[in-house]
Design goal:
By secondary structure, the protein is mainly β. 0% of the residues lie in helices and 45% in strands.
Amino acid sequence: MCDARIAARIEAVSPRPACIAARIEVIEVLSLRHARNTARMDLVSAGPARIVAQIEVLSLRPARNAAWLTLCFRDMQGWN
């Protein structure tokens, strides 16, 4: 991986009626030198909540790519 900018698309959809549909087009990885790389991004939703997403890539090896995504809602009003 030569480029520090990795193209990615992530959709987070809530099973509730007021669903959240989020798409993140580009993730900028902060470090490519370690086996564990961290990327951060801010996403402003169409609703009242501002979503902060943090993604940590566990491995950059093609056969072992895994990542987890955490969404923290600073304002839950409107998403209940």
